[in-house]
Automatic annotation (TrEMBL):
PROSITE patterns: RESPONSE_REGULATORY, SIGMA54_INTERACT_1, SIGMA54_INTERACT_2, SIGMA54_INTERACT_4. This is Two component, sigma54 specific, transcriptional regulator, Fis family. It holds the Pfam family Response_reg. Signal peptide: none annotated. Keywords: ATP-binding, DNA-binding, Nucleotide-binding, Phosphoprotein, Transcription, Transcription regulation. Residues 10-125 form the Response regulatory domain. Residues 149-377 form the Sigma-54 factor interaction domain.
Length: 504
């Protein structure tokens, strides 16, 4: 945020709700902001017209007040570059789509997590005006603080049109595509475009989870003793009237697939431990990167479930078939990540852009984002993309460089790699992935006062996963409350890892 050091950031808030105002004052950056409140939407318009305009408008819609949305029409004429975040009650959730159409960058339904509002504010407020105009593209559609859909190629424009039709149809959808290609993003887009957009969107990962845990996560549980019955609701109930997204459906245990069939056929399910059925009203979206025919042949996927889902199937193309979007994605990810890490964004050299356009990106957008993280830290000094006969080879030889007296910020592991010669893009990705993961966990733990359950919720991972990662990175907190993190070499990174037989 160094670019904003010479200018006071102004935030105009149209709200009297403590749930909206409280997170603002608790954000560390807010001490340097000028936060003003307006009595009404029309008061906010007068302030914008009067001269000193805000950098961000936070508009809270009172329950049952749809007239305040008219402010968005006026603001689009007065200040088309002014980012707006709208919050509203569940009763007015149907206005979410209208608010987005009128120009709101973000719409949050109360009650929301404070972290959601903080993330939205940081995303739209902490970006200087000249960068905002450069970063915002008509081809980019924001679906949340960290999720966006790019429709800059014919294939994704067709994909978005399909999403509109499927959102209106409100039928089960099967989304197929390679790992990292954007199946999750498409599911969120379908939800956003549907009449259910004002209700929850919940995701369940079916891979690498024991059957009992996944069943409890989806269906909940019911335990009855002689004195009382303890009911725990699962994601199916929490997503009532909203959307449930089942990722990697072919990895779901067969016993649970049978229960999912009951949801699709009858609109009911039974919690484990209970014989009674519970009605449920959700839009079910499923995704998989597996070969469906093979999964059915290997008895990993029920054939009747596949046919029930595949009546409406969408194929997400890999990034190598959407090369028109690579430059847009690179620039957008650079601005997003530079805000996240508090660093000035780097410009991509023509050589890097050319190599990126030629690369096959086997892990798709996920791999591209990891590459941008690395480039943000090292730039051209730390990454040299060697010219070769084809794009895939060009991206395989990413090596540390730099002249004498100008050592790039690449870390100890990279210095070792620099001495031993070129390293692979995968090794660099492993390195920056571990670094980013470690930093995110450390930030969450410090923010929650080392409350690991709260940190797991903030990171949106399971408690067990967080404990594993804390142990993996040897993260400890001292008696004084200071977090210490041992430097950990990513598995499979460097010659030492290979000698020790560590797998990536």
């Amino acid at each position: 945020m160094a670019e904003n050091a010479t200018e006071t950031l102004r935030l105009l808030v149209v709200s009297r709700e403590s749930a909206v105002l409280r997170p603002l004052w608790s954000m560390p950056e807010s001490s340097s902001w000028q936060i003003e409140t307006a009595a009404s939407a029309w008061d906010a318009i007068e302030r914008v017209q009067s001269g000193v305009a805000p950098h961000l408008l936070l508009l809270d819609l009172p329950r049952g007040d749809g007239d305040s949305l008219h402010i968005l029409r006026w603001l689009r004429r007065l200040r088309p570059d002014l980012p707006v975040i709208v919050t509203c009650s569940p009763e007015d959730a149907d206005k979410k789509k209208e608010a987005t159409r009128l120009g709101a960058q973000e719409v949050l339904i109360r009650p929301f997590e404070e972290a959601e509002l903080e993330s939205a504010i940081r995303q739209h407020l902490l970006l200087p005006g000249n960068e905002r105009s450069e970063a915002v593209s008509e081809d980019i559609e924001h679906l949340g603080p960290d999720t966006f859909f790019v429709s800059a190629s014919p294939v994704t424009q067709k994909l978005r049109a399909q999403a509109e039709l499927l959102a209106e149809a409100d039928v089960p959808v099967l989304i197929l595509g390679e790992s990292g290609s954007g199946k999750d993003t498409l599911a969120r887009l379908i939800h956003k475009l549907s009449v259910r957009s004002g209700f929850p969107f919940l995701k369940a990962k079916c891979a690498d989870m024991p059957a009992e845990l996944l069943e409890a996560e989806l269906l909940g549980s019911e335990q009855t003793s002689s004195q009382r019955t303890i009911v725990t609701q699962g994601k199916l109930e929490h997503a009532e009237k909203g959307t449930i997204f089942l990722d990697e459906i072919a990895e779901m245990p067969l016993t649970l697939q049978a229960k999912l069939m009951q949801v699709l056929q009858e609109g009911v399910f039974a919690r484990p431990g209970s014989g009674r059925t519970v009605p449920v009203d959700v839009h079910l979206l499923a995704a998989s990167s597996a070969n469906m025919d093979r999964a059915i042949a290997e008895k990993r996927l029920r054939e009747d479930l596949y046919y029930r889902l595949s009546a409406f199937t969408v194929q997400v193309p890999p990034l190598r078939q959407r090369k028109e979007e690579i430059t847009i994605l690179l620039q957008h990810l650079m601005h997003k990540l530079s805000r996240h890490y508090g660093l000035p964004p780097r410009k991509f050299s023509p050589a890097v852009l050319a190599a990126c356009r030629d690369h096959a990106w086997p892990d798709n957008v996920r791999e591209l984002e990891t590459f941008v993280k690395r480039y943000l830290l090292a730039g051209d000094r730390g990454l040299t993309l060697g010219a070769a006969s084809n794009g895939a080879d060009r991206m395989n030889g990413v090596q540390a460089s730099g002249s004498k007296g100008a050592t790039p910020f690449v870390g100890a592991d990279d210095v070792q790699q620099e001495q031993s010669g070129p390293t692979s893009l995968k090794s660099l990705i492993d390195s920056v992935k571990c670094e980013a993961e470690r930093n995110a966990i450390g930030t969450a733990l410090e923010k929650t006062g080392w409350n690991r359950k709260a940190a797991a919720r903030l990171l949106q991972v399971s408690y067990r996963t967080l404990l594993y990662k804390i142990d993996q990175y040897h993260m400890r907190v001292s008696k004084s409350g200071v977090l210490s993190v041992a430097e950990t070499r990513p598995a499979g990174f460097g010659s030492e890892a290979k000698q020790n037989g560590r797998a990536s």
